[in-house]
């Protein structure tokens, strides 16, 4: 694991991505799955519902009406963010301008929401499991949180 995945030169606005090949490969796979879920996902998928939550939990009719006006645009923006991350991952040592930094933050957040839903993460954290696959997913969930925090700490002030 790269100890310092994002570096911002002193006084600069751009951030350099310093992920190794394995990390870029894993993130590329995860973001590709996220984009696929957003483009082709089943509306009944709880992970998709987590990414596109109901605006009104107690009023199904109002929630459906709100979704009718907002879901396509929100989905499109999430896909665009994911594609921006995929493009950056294809170039080792790429730099992120302010817009790309926001795309990365949003996509990392969406990945954590999706994976968190799949793992059953609650306020108590990642559930303990003897299943090796779930344990590995839990480690990936934690790593995504680490990346998100590292990127946040690297953002230019102001």
Describe this structure in words.
- The protein has 158 residues and is mainly α.
- The protein has one domain.
- It is 64% helix and 4% strand.
- It has 5 helices and 3 strands, in the order ββαααβαα.
- It has a 3-stranded antiparallel sheet.
- Strand 1 and strand 2 form a beta hairpin.
- The radius of gyration is 17 Å and the shape is globular.
- The two termini are 29 Å apart.
Summarize the topology:
Blueprint (H helix, E strand, L loop, with lengths): L5 E2 L7 E3 L3 H20 L5 H6 L8 H30 L5 E2 L1 H22 L12 H23 L4
Antiparallel strand pairs: 1-2, 2-3
Helix pairs in contact: 1-3, 3-4, 4-5
Global shape: globular
Structural class based on helices, strands and sheet pairing: mainly alpha
In the sheet with the most strands, the strands line up as 1-2-3
> How many DSSP H or I helices?
5
User: Major beta sheet, specifics?
Assistant: 3 strands, antiparallel
Order of helices and strands: EEHHHEHH
Q: Helix coverage percent of residues? A: 55-70%
Distance between the termini: 29 Å
Number of strands: 3
Mean pLDDT: 92
> Which residues form runs of ≥5 with pLDDT under 50?
none
**Domain module tally:** 1
Alpha carbon gyration radius: 17 Å
Q: Beta-strand level of the residues, as a percent range?
A: under 5%
Summarize this structure as a short list of keywords or feature phrases:
158 residues; mainly alpha; 3-stranded antiparallel sheet; 3 strands; 64% helix
Describe the structure in brief.
This protein is mainly α. The chain has helices at residues 21-40, 46-51, 60-89, 98-119, 132-154, and strands spanning 6-7, 15-17, 95-96. The chain has one domain.
């Amino acid at each position: 694991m790269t100890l310092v995945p994002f570096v911002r030169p002193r006084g600069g606005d751009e951030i350099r991505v310093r992920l190794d090949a394995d990390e870029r490969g894993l993130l590329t796979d995860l973001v590709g799955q996220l984009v696929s879920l957003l483009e082709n996902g089943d509306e009944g998928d709880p992970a998709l519902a987590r990414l596109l939550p109901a605006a009104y939990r107690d009023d199904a009719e109002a929630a459906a009406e709100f979704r009718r006006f907002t879901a396509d645009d929100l989905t499109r923006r999430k896909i665009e963010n994911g594609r921006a991350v995929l493009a950056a991952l294809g170039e080792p040592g790429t730099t992120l301008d302010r817009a790309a930094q926001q795309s990365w933050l949003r996509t990392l957040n969406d990945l954590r929401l999706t994976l968190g839903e799949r793992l059953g993460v609650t306020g108590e954290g990642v559930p303990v499991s003897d299943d090796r696959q779930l344990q590995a997913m839990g480690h990936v969930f934690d790593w995504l949180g680490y990346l998100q925090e590292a990127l946040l700490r690297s953002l230019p002030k102001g």
